[in-house]
What we know:
Elements: H1 3-12, E1 20-23, H2 28-43, E2 48-54, H3 61-75, E3 79-83, H4 93-109, E4 115-117, H5 122-134, H6 139-142, E5 148-151, E6 154-157, H7 165-175, H8 191-206, H9 210-238, E7 245-247, H10 248-252, H11 256-270, H12 277-285, E8 295-299, E9 302-307, E10 310-315, E11 325-328, E12 334-336, E13 339-341, E14 344-347, E15 357-361, E16 367-370, E17 374-377, H13 378-385, H14 389-392, E18 396-400, E19 403-409, E20 414-418, E21 422-425
Parallel strand pairs: 1-2, 1-4, 2-3, 4-6
Antiparallel strand pairs: 5-6, 7-10, 8-9, 9-10, 11-15, 12-13, 14-21, 15-18, 16-17, 18-19, 19-20
Helix pairs in contact: 1-2, 2-3, 5-8, 5-9, 9-11
Amino acid sequence: MSLQLLIDDALAQTPPGRPVWVALSGGLDSSLLVTLGAEACRRHPRPLRALHVNHGLQAAADGFELHCRRLCSRLGVPLFVERVEVDLDRGRGLEGAARAARYAAFARRVLPGETLWLGQHRDDQAETFLLAALRGSGVRGLAAMPARRAWRDGWIERPLLAASRVEIEAEAGRRGLGWVEDPSNLDETLDRNFLRRTVIPLLERRWPHADTALAAAAGHAGEADGLLAELAGEDLARLGGAAGCLPLDGLLALSDARQRLLVRHACERLGLPAPPARRLEALLAQLDARQDAETRVAWAGTEARVWRGHLHLLASPAPLPPDWQAEWDGRAPLLTPLGEVEVSLGPVEPAGAPPALRLATRRGGERLRLAGRGSRDLKRLLQEAGVPPWERDRLLVVWQGERVVALLDPQEPRWLACAEGWRADPASSR
C-alpha cells in the first residue's frame, strides 16, 4: 500500500485554499503523517500547519514538544503548541479527560471550515472496536473511528486509517524518520495498552489477520450506523423536524428501539450528549406521564422534560442566583446574571427623572396590572403564554416600589408582560 497515495487522496478532499492541520503528538503515526503531508502540500500547494497539545501529565511531555518543534522546523511546517490542564474531576478517567482537553485545544486553533488530520491507523481501529464491544456499546460505538467526519463546519480525517502499524513503521524506517515513544504506552493498567500489548498479539497468533477483520467489522458497523441515522432523520421529519421538541403521540407510535434511536439522534442534532442506557430507559418509561406532570430526567449537563404533550431535550440551564437583585433606571443596556441585554422600560407618559426600578428573580405570588385585563397573577400569565416551567425560574421581575411593572426573559431577550401605563422596548411584550 502506498501511504503517500493515501495522503494525496485525503488532500484532494480538502477545500482548496483552506489550511490543513495535523494533530502532532510526536509519536510514530503523527510524525510520519506530518512528513507525508508536507511532501503532498509541496506538490499540490496548500497551507499545512501542525498542532501539538502538551498535556503536562508526565515528565516526558516537554521532550515530545521539543521533538515536534525540531521536526516541523526541518519540514518547514508552522507548529502551534497548546498547553492544557486535564480536568480529572468529571468522572471521565484519565484517558477521557485528556481527550476532552485535547479536542478543546483543537477547537481553539482550527477555525470552522478547516480540516484536521489525525494519525490513527488500522491497529488503532481494531483496538477501538474491541474496547467498544467490551463496554457493551451499541452500533455507534462499534463503528469506532470514521475515516472522515464533519466537525465545526469542516472535517476531521484519518488519512492513515487503512494502513497497519507495520506498514507505517516500515515507511518511517525507509525514510530514517525519528519519533518519540510515550512511556505511558507501556502501562498495561490502561485498557487500550492491555489490548495492544497482550490481547491483540494473542489473537493474531490464532488469526493472523485479526486487525484487518476487526477493522472491517468496525466499517460494517459504521455503515449500519449511517443507515440508522437516515431512519432516525426520517422519523424526526415525520414528527415535525424539531429535535428539541418531540410530540409524544408520534414518539409513542414508534417501536421501543426506534424511540431510543430517535432520542439519541435528536440529542446529536442539538449538540447534546446522548443519554446513558439506563437514563434513556428511565426516560422512555415516563413518556406517557400525565400532561400536567413535570417529568425530568437529567444526565451530563443535559435534561429531558415531558410537558404539554411533548418531549423537550435541552442543555441544563444554570440557575440564577436566588437572591439576585439590581437597581435600574430603565435605560439600555441592562446588566443581568445572564449577560448584558439591550432593553429599556419607562412610563408611557414620563415625568421628570427616570424611574427608580428594581429587578429581582421570581419569588411566587407576584401580580401585574395589564391594560384592559386588570390585575393578573404572573404564574397564570406564564401558563397562558406557554412558557415552560424550567424557563420560569430564569425570568426577572421589574418592580417600582412595591408594584410589579414588567416581566423580562433576559435570555432572548424579550418582555413577557408590561404593566398598564408602561412601555417596553424592544416592543416584544405580550
